[in-house]
Amino acid sequence: MNSTVIVRAPLHVQVAERLRILIDSGELAPGTRLNEIELCNTMGVSRTPLREAIRSLATEGLIELQPNRGAVVSIVSQEDVTEILPIMASLEGLGGRLAAMHMDQSKIAQVRKIHNQMISHYKNNEVAEYFETNRLIHELITEGSGNQTLVDTINSLSAKVRRARFTAQMTKESWAKAVSEHEEMIAALEAQDPDRLEAILVQHIETKRATILGSIEQNQ
Amino acid sequence: MNSTVIVRAPLHVQVAERLRILIDSGELAPGTRLNEIELCNTMGVSRTPLREAIRSLATEGLIELQPNRGAVVSIVSQEDVTEILPIMASLEGLGGRLAAMHMDQSKIAQVRKIHNQMISHYKNNEVAEYFETNRLIHELITEGSGNQTLVDTINSLSAKVRRARFTAQMTKESWAKAVSEHEEMIAALEAQDPDRLEAILVQHIETKRATILGSIEQNQ
DNA sequence: ATATCGTATTTTGTATGCAAAATAAAAACG
DNA sequence: CGTTTTTATTTTGCATACAAAATACGATAT
User: Fold this and answer.
1) Which of A167, B31, B112, B208 has the largest count of CB atoms under 10 Å?
2) CA of A173 vs chain B CAs: smallest distance (Å)
3) CA-to-CA distance for A136 and A130, rounded, in angstroms?
4) H helices within chain B, ranges in order?
5) How does pLDDT run across A207-219, given as a tens digit for each residue?
6) Cβ-based neighbours of A27, under 8 Å, separated by 6 or more
7) B60 at interface of A, judged by CB pairs closer than 8 A
8) What is the pLDDT of residues A21-67, one digit of tens each?
9) Are B153 and A52 a contacting pair at CB < 8 A?
């Protein structure tokens, strides 16, 4: 009794995860046709679990299905980003509001710690590390809301624009602005001020949207 | 050339739709185990497209997968409703804000017309018709945002609590309150006042949450 | 040479079959 | 008689096979 049950995830879930990584990393670029047999060979699984995984990613929006013509990695257009980021602003704002109400001091201190790391990455011009700590801070705050559905919803939307965010080339100015907004965020969180944290997060993601759109425009 | 291409939806999509309807209508009640062969027989399809459909509904959250033990219609708990409705409040608020900015007068007039129908259903105590016109108004406003991703996101969340909302027994007072809030909504929309419409919608869904939670509590 | 038609090949869609896990039923034991 | 163990049955997971659609290719005609 009370034995730790080891349930290895079903194949279609594992395949979905691998596909997600391939899409995130850009190895499967937007617009790429997914050839089932080809993918089956590289992954060493049969078509059944692969197709189930493809259906999942399609309902998530990462992939688009073309009847009788297979699946294609979704192309994230400028319009998509324009649609998604205001939604994320609202949701991260709500997350921040709830986090400011519910997070305890020790968790807030943890966020502050990572924030300080982020600042030093900024000062040392370490872009990848900056992005990672940045992402982690947003994640911790959202999770601090205590609302798992909110976390899932944000992650699902975030997944669609992740590549675009990653490739977005920050200017010196937009980077500085983002950092100063983060400073305000942490202050509002430490003050446990829901209204202020919500407002800053909404504003912060607006800034992000502008940065990304500017960057996408250049690349096309 | 230019011939109208008739693409009948893939089987797994059709099956997913039928399952969705069965779940919505309550014929497949929360907690019901989905027996694959049984469902295959009633629907007249093989297991492959059925399983693909089940995977889709699972990523939507309408169904839960238990590895090696099949799929179960998700049970919407009180906690789930408590999590989902604040998210919907934020999103419908955003939808209202955008709608107040983008909807033209003719569309606003259309909403007013349906609002008037809803009011008369309220006065005549026609509950089903009231619910339907109510739902339609929210849908029109959200669609008026012009943000399809927002519409999809709200629908996806809405699907999870739909049954709970339907069964929620309104008291005389909560019903009256909902109606008066709707009156304010329409006024804010006609005044094209984004801030006000957003605030009212957020408040309105808070009211709804209270109603539903009160109702769920009684039934358990 | 280009366009159109017909055929071959590839690729997706659906059904079926086999293996492994889980559940139900029956038998053995205390 | 109740509890555990063993066996049988059902049900899910994955792989394969067949059918239908789409694409690629080549031949023929203009």
Assistant:
1) B208
2) 29
3) 10
4) 11-25, 36-43, 47-60, 78-102, 105-123, 127-144, 148-167, 172-190, 194-219
5) 888 887 776 655 4
6) none
7) yes
8) 999 999 999 999 999 999 999 999 999 999 999 999 999 999 999 99
9) no
Question: Nearest CA to A166 among A128, A217, A202, A124?
Answer: A128
Q: Taking the mean position of all CA atoms in its chain, how far away is CA A14?
A: 20
Q: Is the pLDDT of residue A191 over 50?
A: yes
User: Closest Cα of chain B to A52: distance in Å?
Assistant: 5
What would the mean pLDDT of A3-10 be, rounded to a whole number? 62
pLDDT of res. A1: 38
* Token pair of A11 as six digits: 């194949």
Average pLDDT over residues A12-27: 95
Q: Is the Cβ of A208 closer than 8 Å to some Cβ of chain B?
A: no
Pull the structure tokens for residue B55: 């995977």
Assess contact for A115 and A134: CB atoms under 8 A.
no
Q: Please provide the average confidence, as pLDDT, over all residues in chain B.
A: 91
**B52, B80, B150 ranked by CB distance to A87: nearest:** B150
Q: Where are the alpha helices (DSSP H) in chain A?
A: 11-25, 36-43, 47-60, 78-102, 105-123, 127-144, 148-167, 172-190, 194-218
Q: What is the pLDDT of residue A6?
A: 52
Q: Which two tokens stand for residue B165?
A: 């909302």
Task: Name the token pair of A49.
Answer: 């679990």
Q: Taking the CA of residue A110 as centre, how many other CA atoms within 13 Å lie in the half-sphere pointing to its CB?
A: 13
Q: What is the pTM of this model?
A: 0.88
Q: Is residue B46's beta carbon less than 7 angstroms from any atom in nucleic acid strand C?
A: yes
Q: Does B56 sit within 8 Å of A51, measured CB to CB?
A: no
Q: What is the DSSP letter of B8?
A: P
Phi-psi group of B103: left, alpha or beta (phi > 0 → left; psi -120 to 50 → alpha; rest → beta)? beta
Query: Sorting pLDDT into bands at 50, 70 and 90, what band is A2?
Result: very low
Give the tens place of pLDDT for each residue, A122-139: 999 999 899 999 999 999
Which residues in chain A touch residue B56, judged by CB atoms under 8 angstroms apart? 55-56, 58-59
CA distance A150 to chain B (A): 7
